[in-house]
Specification:
Elements (H helix, E strand, L loop, with lengths): L16 E5 L18 H15 L3 E5 L9 H10 L9 H9 L4 H11 L3 E3 L6 H9 L5 E3 L14 H9 L3 E4 L21 E3 L1 H15 L5 E5 L8 H10 L2 E4 L4 H7 L3 E2 L9 H14 L2 E3 L3 E5 L8 E5 L2 E2 L4 E5 L1 H12 L3 E5 L12 H12 L3 E5 L1 H9 L8 E2 L3 H8 L5 H4 L5
Parallel strand pairs: 1-2, 1-5, 2-4, 3-4, 5-6, 7-8, 7-15, 8-10, 9-13, 15-16, 16-17
Antiparallel strand pairs: 11-12, 11-14
Helix pairs in contact: 1-4, 8-10, 9-10, 11-12
Bound molecules: adenosine-5'-diphosphate (ADP) and magnesium ion.
The site of magnesium ion (MG) has 3 residues, from helix 13.
Length: 423
């Protein structure tokens, strides 16, 4: 995939209507009060919006939020699958479910952050959006409703993409969190408008793309998280690129079991043991150093207050489960990143949500904060862990897209990036 894409700086936006795809899929309070519990994603979009406004553009922003049922039929189908009696489902209830996923609270917050009015459309490409977009002046901002209120969005329907494009003269994508999806507003629309990236995507492509295509070596990849099955693509792709691969988290036990270790009640994906052996072989064939835990902190139950003990890897007693890497492994892994040129980290080393089992993840975060290496954090939970443990501003880059960064590291083509103009 070509990562060298045109950005907002490569085009003239002055006097133009710009359709800007953002990732405003922010967490909202569960009580339906419309309170945004974390506005990080809105803040992250500000530099591109501000730049476009400064250039004299009129900004038509759009985003998805959650997973609304775009039609009453799909609402009934989804709720029935969840065990609801179809006879009890009303159009009223469906409309309420949509209202809970309206972008109106985002428009209000964006307006506060920008310090200027943000107009809100009642629909995505309907009469209200069309009229407001047509009347929009340079320096003004309009936010369209949740793009997934249109059933064509997730189907990448060309008719919807064309209507979205019809409101603007330029398409700017800054929704890195959604570039792994070929939807009408993330990819389809680029068929009808010149398409460039905003600053968020530009930075993701520069840093992650740079590390994958031409890393400062040695390149050390730290891979953890819960499951081998969700990280196979990343392990396989990074084995082609990295000098050292470090395995931690729940997936280490599948590797351990594959080598004949006792893993007790630890997370184990028996179906992936053979694959784990293949990866070990591939590493050996390619001369990639692959490090596995040498000890483990195991617990007598999956709980924050579990009793714990440190045991050697592959010697976890029955009834116990590994929830973190052990102290010897910590020093081994911290040594391995010391002289790295680049470190890519995806997946926590243990169940960091429980403080008693966060030590491995914290030690690795601390080690990364002290290296001179380019440090890149991908993956939603890894980013959350680094933030929660207070090391966020010590890293070169924390990706703004969980699923997207994973697919990026798997070496897959990202439809929302591929559709942008090459430099
Ligand atoms: P990311 O979102 O960064 O890609 P994953 O989703 O793959 O990461 O994995 C994160 C989850 O893995 C965390 O919720 C963490 O608790 C869990 N995890 C890490 N180590 C273990 C373990 N030893 N046993 C069970 N779960 C684990
Ligand atoms: Mg995750």
């Amino acid at each position: 995939m070509n990562y060298n894409k045109k950005t907002v700086r490569d085009v003239d936006a002055a006097g133009k209507k710009v359709l800007l795809r953002c990732d405003f899929n922010v967490p909202m309070a569960k009580d339906g009060s419309g309170v945004i519990t974390d506005d990080k994603r809105i803040r992250a979009a500000l530099p591109t919006i501000q730049y476009l406004l400064d250039q004299g553009a009129a900004v038509i922003a759009c985003s998805h939020m959650g997973k609304p049922a775009a039609t009453f039929e799909t609402y009934v189908k989804k709720q029935t699958e969840k065990g609801k009696d179809p006879a009890s489902l009303t159009e009223e209830a469906w409309k309420q479910s949509l209202a809970a996923l309206s972008l109106k609270p985002v428009a209000a917050r964006l307006s506060e952050l920008l310090g200027r009015e943000v107009l809100m459309a009642d629909d995505v490409v309907g009469p209200d959006a069309q009229a407001k977009a047509a009347a929009l002046q340079p320096g003004q901002v309009l936010l369209l409703e949740n793009t997934r209120f249109e059933k064509g969005e997730t189907k990448n329907d060309p008719a919807l993409a064309e209507k979205l494009a019809g409101m603007a003269e330029l398409y700017v994508s800054d929704a890195f969190g959604a570039v792994h999806r070929a939807h009408a507003s993330t990819a389809g629309v680029a068929q009808y408008l010149p398409a460039v990236s905003g600053f968020l995507i530009q930075r993701e492509l520069e840093v992650i793309g740079g590390a994958l295509a031409n890393p400062k070596r040695p390149l050390v990849a730290i891979l953890g998280g819960s499951k081998v099955s969700s990280k196979i693509g990343v392990i396989n792709n990074l084995l082609e690129i990295a000098d050292t691969i470090i395995i931690g988290g729940g997936m280490a036990y599948t590797f351990s079991a594959a080598q004949g270790g006792q893993v007790g009640d630890s997370l184990l994906e028996a179906d992936w043991m053979e694959y784990a052996l293949e990866m070990l072989q591939k590493a050996a064939d390619k001369g990639v150093k692959l490090l596995l835990p040498v000890d483990t902190v195991c617990a007598d139950k999956f709980a924050p207050d579990a009793a714990s003990q440190v045991v050697k890897a592959g010697q976890i007693p029955d009834g116990w489960q590994g929830l973190d890497i052990g102290p010897e492994t910590v020093s081994l892994y911290c040594d391995a990143v010391k002289d790295a040129g680049t470190v890519i980290w995806n997946g926590p080393m243990g169940v960091f949500e429980f403080p008693a089992f966060a030590k491995g993840t914290e030690a690795v975060a601390e080690a990364l904060s002290k290296t001179d290496a380019i440090t890149i954090i991908g993956g939603g939970d890894s980013a959350a862990a680094v933030q929660q443990l207070g090391y966020a501003d010590k890293m070169t880059h924390i990706s703004t897209g969980g699923g997207a960064s994973l697919e990026f590291m798997e070496g897959k083509e990202l439809p929302g990036v591929a559709c942008l103009l090459d430099k």
